[in-house]
């Protein structure tokens, strides 16, 4: 639980992001949190500062990370560059990860957030951590750099861990969501607009949605598992749930009509083996239906039936 992290100095990189902003905010209740990003959206900086997070500017694409402390207790790297420019996104992912690690090398441990988007598309294969890697998201032109840059950043994190003697965990996140948003929240908006939801023709399109609360809960355990050289672990909710199932449930909750648009021009299923995650930190606690209902309640309460 986050309550296990108290009185620490924790650096959260990518603090304005979907996943890291609520995490940094929650951690700042009992810790000194330094949030780092470029702060392209000033309102996000203000929200973090109001929550007590000290904000420092960095730029991972240029390696400008001198504002980070050199000996924080812990570092959480949730930054990702999605400009769709190969040079920028690879430089931010690879060079940026190494620049962070060099700068904070006196830290006790680092959690590097990766993605299950690193796995080679293989239909309904259940991916363990040693499964083949590939250009999972390349099918989406607007995210053409994503999988490649995430794979490359993992290698940088492993190298940096050894080079700087910095215990590191690389956690491959599936589908994070919560009151602040996420892919299921995008689907909710699409249903609201009457858009058909793209799903892969190899149905169903299955992932492991993970609620923000479960993300907070296991951060201490993931940091505790960090080793020099890096340990890699899949990171998702215990239930494998398909887009077809979760959109149908959003339809049940709201009465919105649900239509799917099967295509091979969208990402394939990425179902993962969570044996290692469960041995390290246990299973997620927020049931997906409960989490989805809470998400609708927080974001679009007027849509909830009854
Ligand atoms: N969201 C998902 O569905 C999902 C799924 C699987 C894995 N993940 C992983 O989870 C982590 C967090 O994802 P997210 O969706 O929360 O990301 P996000 O919302 O896109 O946020 C990305 C963060 O990185 C920062 N950033 C981008 N370029 C930067 C640069 N050049 N220098 C410094 N900071 C930079 C952004 O802040 P500024 O723009 O202000 O600099 C922002 O704080 C990532 O590792 C991602 O790959 C996410």
| Associated small molecules | NADP nicotinamide-adenine-dinucleotide phosphate
Looking at this structure, what is the CATH superfamily?
A: NAD(P)-binding Rossmann-like Domain
**Uncertain residue segments:** none
Instruction: Summarize the helix and strand pattern as letters.
Output: EHEHEEHEEHEEEHEEEHEEHEEHH
Count of alpha/pi helices: 9
Helix and strand composition category: alpha/beta
CATH class: Alpha Beta
CATH topology: Rossmann fold
CATH architecture classification name = 3-Layer(aba) Sandwich
Biggest sheet, spatial arrangement of strands = 3-2-1-4-5-7-13
- Rg over alpha carbons: 19 Å
Mean pLDDT: 97
Written account of the structure:
This protein has 306 residues and is α/β, with parallel strands linked by helices. It has one domain (7-180, 209-238, 270-284): Rossmann fold (3-Layer(aba) Sandwich), CATH 3.40.50. It has nine helices and 16 strands. It has helices at 20-27, 42-50, 86-103, 146-163, 183-192, 212-224, 243-254, 275-281, 288-299, and strands at residues 9-13, 32-37, 54-57, 74-77, 109-115, 126-127, 168-173, 175-178, 181-182, 197-200, 206-207, 209-211, 231-235, 241-242, 260-263, 271-272. The strands form five sheets. Strands 3-2-1-4-5-7-13 form a seven-stranded parallel β-sheet, with helices on both faces. A three-stranded mixed β-sheet has the order 9-8-12. The chain has a two-stranded parallel ribbon with strand order 6-16. It starts with 8 loop residues before the first strand and ends in a 7-residue tail after the last helix. Residues 14-20, 37-40, 58-61, 78-82, 92, 113, 115, 150, 173, 175-176, 182-183 line the site of NADP nicotinamide-adenine-dinucleotide phosphate (NAP).
């Amino acid at each position: 639980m986050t309550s296990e992290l108290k009185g620490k100095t924790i650096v959260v990189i990518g603090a304005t992001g979907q996943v890291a902003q609520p995490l940094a905010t929650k951690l700042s209740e009992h810790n000194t949190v330094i949030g780092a990003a470029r702060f392209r959206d000033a309102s996000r900086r203000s929200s973090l500062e109001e929550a007590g997070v000290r904000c420092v500017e960095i730029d991972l694409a240029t390696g400008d990370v001198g504002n980070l402390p050199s000996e924080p207790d812990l570092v959480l790297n949730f930054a990702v560059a999605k400009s769709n420019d190969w040079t920028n996104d690879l430089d931010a992912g690879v060079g940026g990860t190494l620049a962070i690690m060099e700068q904070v090398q006196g830290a006790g441990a680092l959690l590097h957030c990766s993605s299950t988007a690193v796995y080679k598309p293989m239909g309904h294969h259940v991916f363990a951590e040693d499964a083949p890697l590939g250009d999972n998201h390349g099918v989406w032109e607007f995210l053409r750099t994503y999988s490649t840059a995430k794979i490359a950043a993992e290698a940088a994190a492993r190298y940096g861990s050894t080079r700087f003697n910095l215990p590191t965990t690389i956690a491959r996140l599936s589908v994070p969501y919560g009151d602040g948003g996420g892919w299921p929240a995008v689907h909710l908006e699409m249903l609201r607009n009457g858009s058909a939801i793209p799903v892969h023709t190899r149905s169903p399109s299955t992932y492991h949605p993970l609620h923000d609360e479960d993300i907070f809960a296991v951060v201490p355990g993931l940091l505790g598992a960090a080793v020099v050289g890096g340990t890699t672990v899949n990171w998702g909710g215990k239930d494998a749930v398909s887009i077809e199932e979760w959109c149908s449930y959003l339809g049940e909750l709201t009465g919105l009509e649900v239509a799917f648009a099967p295509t091979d021009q969208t990402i394939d299923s990425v179902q993962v083996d969570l044996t290692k995650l469960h041995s390290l930190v246990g299973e997620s606690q927020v049931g997906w239906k409960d989490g989805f209902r809470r998400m609708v309640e927080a974001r679009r309460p007027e849509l909830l039936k009854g």
